[in-house]
Amino acid sequence: MSNKIIDLFKIKYPIIQAGMVWNSGWKLASASSNAGILGLIGAGSMYPDVLREHIQKCKKATNKPFGVNVPMLYPNIQEIMDIIVEEEVKIVFTSAGNPKTWTSWLKEKGITVVHVVSSVKFALKAQEAGVDAVVAEGFEAGGHNGRDETTTLTLIPMVKEHIQIPLIAAGGIATGNAMLAVMILGADGVQVGSRFVASEESSAHQSFKKIVIDAKEGDTQLTLKEIAPVRLIKNKFYNDVQELYKKAPTLQELEALLGRARAKRGMFEGDLVEGELEIGQVSGLIHDIKPVSQIVKDMMEEFEIAKKKVSHL
Fold it and tell me: pLDDT per residue over 41-77, tens digit each?
């Protein structure tokens, strides 16, 4: 198999393991890369020295390509980027910010740059900034995503219509069937998050992994749009947010309720009551915790079977 994403990252399969906060440490990234896909370390939940440690451990655990996902809204961004260059990371996915800010600087250092977007407008801005590829992420995705609530099914062909660089689809993709579907719509590859949360190598708390595989259709909701839209599993914290909305809260009141470190509390420390539990709608299709190698194997087998079925239609 060969396509633009495989060629760009020098990987076996056109799948990227998303660099998710509190889930994507060196163990998940290296296991993903060793399975033939692109593993990403999620820098968003790491202090600079912790990120350096994860990069160094990942380099020892795999000789395959891996990258780092950097949400640009975080502090210490210059220090994080310097560490990435010092540790000779060759692939960076940026998100939550203007791609013009860092793309040229990174590319001058010989780094392949991919930017995550949720709309055609931002895909075009990323292309103009000189990125090597974009991830177009639909409203189904877990964690933080776009305010426009554009679904993956409509977002991918709309973005494809307007850009010339490689396109990676994200949001609601956990199976080989979904992978084939978005590639038929124009994607060159896929980025998968929620399915890898429920992996043995994910750094998520076991209690969080368990609630993910127990989730059903309708158990997640996009909320907190005034701060940064985020898809959450409905728990006590989520219900508290909805109760506050009934009072037409100010931005300051919403921020006060959210507080600090809610995501760490929920996903990393396992507080299923007061924690922020970020996961995608596709969690309703995830029923077990598996090694990364098995997840990738299953996805590719499903993908090949789906291709044969489509040829018969």
Answer: 999 889 999 999 999 999 999 999 999 999 988 778 9
Q: How far apart are CA 151 and CA 59, in angstroms?
A: 36
Alpha helices in the chain (DSSP H): 4-9, 26-34, 48-61, 77-86, 103-108, 120-129, 152-160, 176-184, 194-197, 206-214, 236-245, 251-258, 262-263, 292-311
The answer to whether 48 touches 79, Cβ cutoff 8 Å, is yes
CA proximity to 72, closest of 35, 99, 51, 49: 99
CB count in 10 Å sphere of residue 56? 12
Give the 3-state secondary structure of residue 150. Answer: coil
Residue 13 structure tokens: 């399969």
Distance of CA 123 to the CA centre of its chain: 16
Residue 289 makes CB contacts below 8 A (sequence gap 6+) with 198, 199, 200, 209, 213
Q: What is the pLDDT of residues 157-197, one digit of tens each?
A: 999 999 999 999 999 999 999 999 999 999 999 999 999 99
What's the pTM value of the predicted model, to 2 decimals? 0.95
Amino acid at 246: K
Task: Provide the residue ranges of all domains of the chain, joining segments of one domain with +.
Answer: 4-203+285-311, 216-282
CATH 3.20.20.70 fits 4-203+285-311, yes or no: yes
